[in-house]
């Protein structure tokens, strides 16, 4: 880098650094909030919590709601302290009957309820022990009980085992009593056989009552599997490979079976033709599998019947010994594959490399190219067509299914199944071996030297939680947070505030209910009283009002990410009560004396959350959870113990939650920048509750006597203002004031923290390195030129079909009246008179297409469209817009996806147009009235972006010539009224498949281009870093000049956040002449740097 470029580069970096520091002056805290809210909104769609919730929503119908029979699993027990739970009785032995296999020797298990004296150790564990075992078996670094996985008996010793008196059915809480069995109602035969009902009818076993069981059947049976479009997750290449070892359980061994722990399934090891059977058998089918007659098997079944005498059914029912045998298996392995339906749900593990050992050898088969679902080579090809149809329904752009054309949709592969019976075989594609062939299936008898060193240096116990307070951020020390969290395991604290997963089905159901309630409340914000919304965001005395009123997040994903923060808070309180980790405020016992984590609650709070817990046991159709949730939230957002909070801020659940949310799972605290996001979400939830609370109180006041309306109004206004001032501001001791205290501190720390160095240049100044990806600037220029030529060629040949048009048809508009008020008006607006003219370019294209006869033909005054050629042509049009968008984004200083997606070429009721003609440059420009913080601040800013002439010509062709014909074609495919779709096509630039494009699609298009042309995965976010680095190096304007400020604004940055108010609050889209010229100069400089002409050379 030469000295001049280095000076300019530093100047840009210094200018941005100074501007960012100026953003966060202490007296302008409202500006901090505005940027935090913008960040939440931008990242909502990428939020892993939101993605997980949306995935849960797709499968919500699979989740069984809590039963009403009074059964209680660990997560469905009434909310009472764990110290009051009655431990299960453990009997050290059992008197087995002669024909009964000997039970596994009893061993104590920490998964059982424990005595109060052992409670402290349990509370400091981050996860329930049955989940820890699962983790240990797949992660050698945390494996304590199976340090040497090569020895099956060591693994078996780690698995839960309880010996219970076989003669006492009451010892198994999941055994139905005789009275309960008589109440069973037979269901549909196929569903009963596939699901858990079969176990109830045949063995009197209720899977819902098995402690620590989290497995749930998806409900897929038979043909419905063809509509599954997502199966096994991708391999985790750095994972410890699954070893597929068999546990030699003594009970199972007695009947010739073993337990495959990696897949939680019973494996039959009885000999068949001299070899082990190797079938995976669900628990419900174990007896029938191990004793079957030849007549009971299909002719196509590749196995002979076994004759294990113990499993023979004598009469119509199985005897108590056989049933107790299955019960013991369930106690030891609560997540065992228990039904045929669960067997059909089984998938390859992400740490499975190569075929599964100890089951039958792989066979030839096919796997779907889209999702990986597999079938045997002999399976019906009808399944392929039905399955591909499910993908087409979700993504219409996929090629249709054609008989004989399956090579492009299903690829040949090796497949495996736990059962080869035609009625139960579910095939799975065998994953590839581990890269480099470093797979360890056969464990060595001795450890490596590295293992010896690792085992000596690292123990299974977590390291002591010690924090050097001298180097800690002072806020954590001064606020008392460091001292508060120090005695406890960070993993345990992180688990307390985590989102619920499938191991907590009641809380998962509660999560769905809370999010639904939250979204309903969000949708009511904009219709709420303006005065109330203004009061909710009243700034602290002496601060600026950056946000006019409390506003609703525009995107559904943003609403969900806010809601999930409230889910964490509610689940945190529920877990504390359920695990007995609480004390009442009047309790004399101190937390220090107990040595356990204890949340301080009031009696009112305990009662409200116990009521919420009990309501989750009711069927969903018979309970309205909204008032119950509102009541629970009111007790923590508006607590009745302010005196205790004045002295001890941790006497409130919200304040404790904010502290625990800051804890890093590996110890210490998270970064201030990430904490500001969490706190802003909590603040939004409190304000949303206060708004809803005030509106509910308004409804109460509204019922007053008509003669007392004025008095009631005065009383209502007084109460509303007092409520907001008391609980919604920083004027009093309240949860919200504590949240804002954290926000202030973390925001200032985040702003003063050094930013990550994500961009570096080589010495020659040609290669830029961004996040470990290197791009050659010269190669980038060549790819731009190549793509421009490919786009022009694609439009002329594939879209316009080499039709010759008059020169006026492809010429840019000569003038622009800049009318932004007339609906439907723009540079390329459609008019009846214009379209009816014989020389109209759209008419010429349609006539040429009809004459060619491939895409369409004319019959009288009607156009007949040919389905497949029309689909191909429309895809070519969409492809042209895709290529055009990428080049627009690269050659016009890049905007944000949410800005570009809504670009309009004609005025509409929603917005004025964004496409204009530059009289100075003689090319098209976009003028965006979009602002990433508009939903928060109510303000707009305007950014002009110059479009290079070659792309302006392509836009002219696509909008003036192609779009009218495209609209006619699309309308012909819509039954009924097509006005809504026609409005979309006549308004927005980026449209296909009858929908306006969205930001995620734009990012995928950009990423696809960078991967194809330059081999780097640059989506919208990384490209912004890339473009900013190029701008700073090659478009260096004098520091503090108007052009430097405009260049920053064109990239979406301001000199300071306060300066964002340069945007006009009036409705006039036209920016000032001097400002427009500055934008045009910056945009033109950017285009010329790419080696592209800004204007026509003519």
Describe this structure in words.
- The structure is a single chain.
- The chain is α+β, with helices and mostly antiparallel strands and 1098 residues long.
- The strands form 8 sheets. The chain has a 4-stranded antiparallel beta sheet.
- The chain starts with a helix and ends in a 9-residue tail after the last helix.
Helix count equals: 42
Strand segment tally: 22
Return the average pLDDT rounded to an integer. Answer: 76
Shape: globular
| Helix fraction by DSSP (H/I, runs of at least 4) | 40-55%
Summarize the helices and strands and which ones pair or pack.
Layout (H helix, E strand, L loop, with lengths): L2 H21 L5 H15 L4 H11 L60 H5 L5 H8 L15 H7 L19 H5 L6 H6 L2 H7 L42 E2 L2 H5 L2 E4 L4 E4 L2 E2 L2 E2 L3 E2 L4 H5 L29 H13 L7 H6 L17 E6 L5 E3 L4 H14 L15 E7 L11 E2 L19 H9 L16 H5 L2 H5 L4 H7 L8 H19 L6 H7 L19 H23 L3 E3 L6 H4 L4 E3 L1 H13 L10 H12 L4 H6 L5 H9 L10 H31 L6 H19 L7 H18 L6 E3 L5 E4 L2 E4 H23 L7 H4 L21 H5 L4 H12 L3 E4 L2 E4 L1 H25 L5 H4 L14 E4 L4 E6 L5 H4 L5 E4 L2 H24 L6 H7 L5 E2 L2 E2 L2 H15 L6 H15 L7 H9 L22 H17 L9
Helix pairs in contact: 2-27, 19-21, 21-27, 23-24, 27-28, 27-29, 30-34, 30-37, 33-37, 34-37, 34-39, 37-38, 41-42
What keyword list fits this structure?
single chain, 1098 residues, alpha+beta, 4-stranded antiparallel β-sheet, 42 helices, 22 strands, 44% helix, 7% strand, globular, disordered N terminus
């Amino acid at each position: 880098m030469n000295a001049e470029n280095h000076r300019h580069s530093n100047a840009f970096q210094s200018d941005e650094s100074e501007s960012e520091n100026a953003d966060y002056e202490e007296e302008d805290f409202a500006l901090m909030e505005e940027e935090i809210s913008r960040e939440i909104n931008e990242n909502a769609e990428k939020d892993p919590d939101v993605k997980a919730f949306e995935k849960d929503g797709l499968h919500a119908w699979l989740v069984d709601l809590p039963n009403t029979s009074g059964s209680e699993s660990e997560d469905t027990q009434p909310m009472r302290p764990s110290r009051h739970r009655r431990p299960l009785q453990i009997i050290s032995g059992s008197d087995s009957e002669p024909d009964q296999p000997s039970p596994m020797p009893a061993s104590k298990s920490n998964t059982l309820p424990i005595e109060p004296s052992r409670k402290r150790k349990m509370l400091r564990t981050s996860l329930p022990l049955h989940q820890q075992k699962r983790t240990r078996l797949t992660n050698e670094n945390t494996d304590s009980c199976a340090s040497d996985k090569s020895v099956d008996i060591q693994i078996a010793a780690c698995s839960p085992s309880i010996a219970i008196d076989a003669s006492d059915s009451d010892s198994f809480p999941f055994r139905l009593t005789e009275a309960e069995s008589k109440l069973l109602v037979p269901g549909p035969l196929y569903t009963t056989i596939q699901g858990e009902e079969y176990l109830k009818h045949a063995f009197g076993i209720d899977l819902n009552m098995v402690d620590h069981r989290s497995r749930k059947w998806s409900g897929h049976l038979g043909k419905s599997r063809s509509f599954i479009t997502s199966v096994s997750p991708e391999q985790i290449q750095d994972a410890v490979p699954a070893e597929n070892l068999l546990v030699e359980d003594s009970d199972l061994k007695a009947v010739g079976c073993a337990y495959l722990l990696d897949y939680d399934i019973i494996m039959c090891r009885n000999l068949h033709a001299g070899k082990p059977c190797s079938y995976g058998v669900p628990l419900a089918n174990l007896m029938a599998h191990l004793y079957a007659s030849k007549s009971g098997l299909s002719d196509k079944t590749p196995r002979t019947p076994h004759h294990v005498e113990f499993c023979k059914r004598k009469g119509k029912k199985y005897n108590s010994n056989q049933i107790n045998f299955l019960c013991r298996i369930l106690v030891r392995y609560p997540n065992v594959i228990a039904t045929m339906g669960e067997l059909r749900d089984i998938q390859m593990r992400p740490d499975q490399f190569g075929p599964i050992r100890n089951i039958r050898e792989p066979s030839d088969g096919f796997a779907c190219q889209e999702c990986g679902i597999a079938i045997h080579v002999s399976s019906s090809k009808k399944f392929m067509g039905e399955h591909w149809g499910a993908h087409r329904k979700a993504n219409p752009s996929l090629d249709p299914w054609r008989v004989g054309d399956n090579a492009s949709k299903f690829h040949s592969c090796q497949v495996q199944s736990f059962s080869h019976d035609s009625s139960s075989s579910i095939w799975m594609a065998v994953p590839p071996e581990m890269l480099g062939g470093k797979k360890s299936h056969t464990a060595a008898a001795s450890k490596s030297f590295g293992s010896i060193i690792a085992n000596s240096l690292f123990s299974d116990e977590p390291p002591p939680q010690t924090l050097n307070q001298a180097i800690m951020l002072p806020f954590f020390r001064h606020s008392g947070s460091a001292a508060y969290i120090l005695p406890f395991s960070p993993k345990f604290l992180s688990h307390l505030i985590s989102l619920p997963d499938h191991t907590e089905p009641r809380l998962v159901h509660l999560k769905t209910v809370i999010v639904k309630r939250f979204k309903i409340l969000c949708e009511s914000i904009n219709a709420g009283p303006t005065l109330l919304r203004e009061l909710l965001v009243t700034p602290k005395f002496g601060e600026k009002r950056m946000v006019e009123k409390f506003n609703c997040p525009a995107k559904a994903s943003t609403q969900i990410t806010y809601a999930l923060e409230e889910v964490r808070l509610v689940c945190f309180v529920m877990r504390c009560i359920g695990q007995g980790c609480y004390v009442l405020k009047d309790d004399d016992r101190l937390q220090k004396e107990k040595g356990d984590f204890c949340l301080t609650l009031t009696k009112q709070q305990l009662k409200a959350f116990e009521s919420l817990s009990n309501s989750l046991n009711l069927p969903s159709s018979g309970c309205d959870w909204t008032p119950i949730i509102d009541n629970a939230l009111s007790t923590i957002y508006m607590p009745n113990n302010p005196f205790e909070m004045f002295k001890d801020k941790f006497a409130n659940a919200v304040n404790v939650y904010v502290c625990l949310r800051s804890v890093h799972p590996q110890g210490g605290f998270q970064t201030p920048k990430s904490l500001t996001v969490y706190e802003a979400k909590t603040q939004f939830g409190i304000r949303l509750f206060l708004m809803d609370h005030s509106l509910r109180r308004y409804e109460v006041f509204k019922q007053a006597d008509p003669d007392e309306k004025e008095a009631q109004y005065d009383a209502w206004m007084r109460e509303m203002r007092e409520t907001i001032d008391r609980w919604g501001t920083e004027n009093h001791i309240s949860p919200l004031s504590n949240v804002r205290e954290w926000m202030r501190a973390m925001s200032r720390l985040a702003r003063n923290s050094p930013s990550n160095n994500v961009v570096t240049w080589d010495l020659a100044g040609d290669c830029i390195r961004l996040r470990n990806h290197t791009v050659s600037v010269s190669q980038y220029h060549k790819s731009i030129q190549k793509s421009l030529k490919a786009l022009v060629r694609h439009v002329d040949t594939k879209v316009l079909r080499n039709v010759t048009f008059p020169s006026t048809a492809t010429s840019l508009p000569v003038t622009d009246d800049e009318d932004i008020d007339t609906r439907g008006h723009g540079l390329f607006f459609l008019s009846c008179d214009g379209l009816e003219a014989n020389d109209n370019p759209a008419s010429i294209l349609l006539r040429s297409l009809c004459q060619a006869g491939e895409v369409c033909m004319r019959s009288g005054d009607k156009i007949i469209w040919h389905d497949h050629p029309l689909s191909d042509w429309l895809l070519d049009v969409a492809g042209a817009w895709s290529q055009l968008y990428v080049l627009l984004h690269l050659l016009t200083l890049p905007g944000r996806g949410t800005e570009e997606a809504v670009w309009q070429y004609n005025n509409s009721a929603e917005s004025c147009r964004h496409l204009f003609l530059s009289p100075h440059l003689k090319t098209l420009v976009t003028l965006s009235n979009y602002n990433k913080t508009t939903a928060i601040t109510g303000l707009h800013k305007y950014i002009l972006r110059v479009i290079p002439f070659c792309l302006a010509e392509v836009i002219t062709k696509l909008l003036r010539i192609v779009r009218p014909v495209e609209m006619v074609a699309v309308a012909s495919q819509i039954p009924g009224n097509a006005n809504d779709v026609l409005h979309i096509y006549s308004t927005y630039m980026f449209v296909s498949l009858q929908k306006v494009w969205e930001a995620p699609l734009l990012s995928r298009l950009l990423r696809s281009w960078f991967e194809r042309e330059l081999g780097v995965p640059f989506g919208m976010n990384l490209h912004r870093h890339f473009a900013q680095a190029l701008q700073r190096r090659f478009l260096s304007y004098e520091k503090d000049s108007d052009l430097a400020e405009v260049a920053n604004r064109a990239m979406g940055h301001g000199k300071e956040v306060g300066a964002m108010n340069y945007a006009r609050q009036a409705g006039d889209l036209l920016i000032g002449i001097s400002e427009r010229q500055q934008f045009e100069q910056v945009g033109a400089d950017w285009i010329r740097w790419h080696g592209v002409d800004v204007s026509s050379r003519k």
